[in-house]
Amino acid sequence: MNLAELTVHEASRLLRQRQISSVELTSAALERIERLDPRVKAFVTVTPELALEQARAADKALAALTLPSPGPARTANAGEGELLGIPLALKDVLVTEGVRTTCSSKILENYVPVYDGTVIGRLRSQGAVFLGKTNCDEFAMGSSTENSGFFPTHNPWDLETVPGGSSGGSSAALAADECLYSLGTDTGGSIRQPAALCGVTGLKPTYGRVSRYGLVAFASSLDQIGPFTKDAEDCAIVLNAIAGPDGQDSTSVDRPVPDYRQALRDDVKGLRIGIPREYFGAGIEPGVERCVREAIALLQGLGANIGECSLPSTDYALDTYYIIAPAEASANLARYDGIRYGLSAQAPDIWSQYNATREAGFGSEVKRRIMLGTYVLSAGYYDAYYLKAQKVRTLIKQEFDRAFERFDVLLAPTSPSVAFKIGEKVDDPLAMYLNDVLTIPVNMAGLPGISVPCGLSNGLPVGLQIIAKAFDEETILRVAYCYQQHTDFHTARPSLG
Ligand code: GLN
């Protein structure tokens, strides 16, 4: 077995028992990247020297530890958490000091930040080992990673298919065991959908649970950072490390962070699980529905109380999202003007320079969103589009609030389909947007959601989505953990040689 195939909790135990070293673990991940990534293409930047240097430092810290086994991350001192010495990959929209951060855009191809985002700093203080930066749709706009300004990423389960998006590099790197865990971002589904398509576990935390400082902004009222892991237990460990208020992000919420590991109980007896009718409508592949229904039946067999519910505004979530997200993106992306960051085209005057830089630097999806966003915010259209969309957003949230009066969690498919062929939807933006019809409502309402593997359809992974009320990641992790104690879909891996 290659060491990179370990889960975080397994690797952490072996590191502390001195059965393996962080240098061995990191070398194993680097070896897989070198061997497999020419085919998977999950990484935009790999930093082997830095990673090995961090691994050597982690080995020193591990040698100084007297603990025989890992304590809970929350009570551990800096450098003693369970992530000490464990190699990870970062979506390339997360700002890293001294390591280029491209957002998979030509406009930032050579941009090297001078600071670390909060989440990166927190992982660094735990002694994490950073392998490099992963590919994504340009500025996180997309559902297949084909909108990357550099190259598409391939799904390790079938290299002809997409890994999902926008965090497709992070999910593919994990599914290929090129890292032990990774981070992505989710604005409309970009953690849960690629997790589903690549057969890994992916959590989108509640809006405000994890600091966005140092996450390059796409749609600021929706963006949230979260982990891709091999199981729910690892998810709890990573969330422990990254969650919590941050003075640098005024939207991070000042609520105490529980020890998410304590939530991992093999017990769903009496838990009230709601099945939203609208999430099983037209457009869901039969194989996807079958796997999700089987998962629901399994949880029922374990003692959960299952009931149906309705979220009637689900149908409007996608339309609303494609007003609000582009509106915010058009404002956020105005900073890329060729003067302050990245690419700078030469031109005789300032206006031509702005235009030439954006023309050369942005891909077509990013341009489409900027135009859409500028349009819906323009005088005369603002009330009809943007303001109305915000009102619908409130309705969506209220419907979830009502559902959570009756239920502890809601279950649904993560994505209507399994991984589709590279090229199949690139020329049809609407077909591409429909991928997120089941994940977007959760972002609109600011809720937490996870995707866990729940079977295969046509040989490709299917994701089960678990949604809870705001700041109830604990119940999500409990259901995911319990489900994984009784199934082994999360341990299945593609055969890449
Ligand atoms: N696919 C959606 C979009 O294109 C969501 C992206 C995301 O969550 N970053 O906007």
What does this structure look like?
The chain is α/β, with parallel strands linked by helices and 497 residues long. Helix content is 38%, strand content 12%. The chain has helices at 8-16, 22-40, 48-64, 118-125, 168-175, 192-198, 232-242, 286-301, 314-332, 350-361, 364-377, 383-406, 429-433, 440-444, 473-485, and strands at 43-46, 87-91, 129-134, 181-185, 201-204, 225-229, 272-276, 305-309, 409-413, 449-457, 460-468. Strands 1-3-2-4-6-5-10-11-9-7-8 form an 11-stranded mixed β-sheet, sandwiched between helices. The model is unreliable at 73-79 (pLDDT under 50). The structure holds glutamine. Glutamine is lined by residues 140-143, 166, 186-190, 218, 325, 436. Glutamine binds at residues 140-143, 166, 186-190, 218, 325, 436.
First CA to last CA: what distance? 12 Å
Which H/E pattern describes the elements?
HHEHEHEHEHEEHEHEHHHHEHHEEH
Beta strands, count: 11
Percent strand: 5-15%
* Adjacency order of strands in the biggest sheet: 1-3-2-4-6-5-10-11-9-7-8
What is the overall shape? globular
Cofactors and ligands: glutamine
Helix content: 25-40%
User: Radius of gyration from the CA trace?
Assistant: 21 Å
Mean pLDDT: 95
Give the number of helices: 15
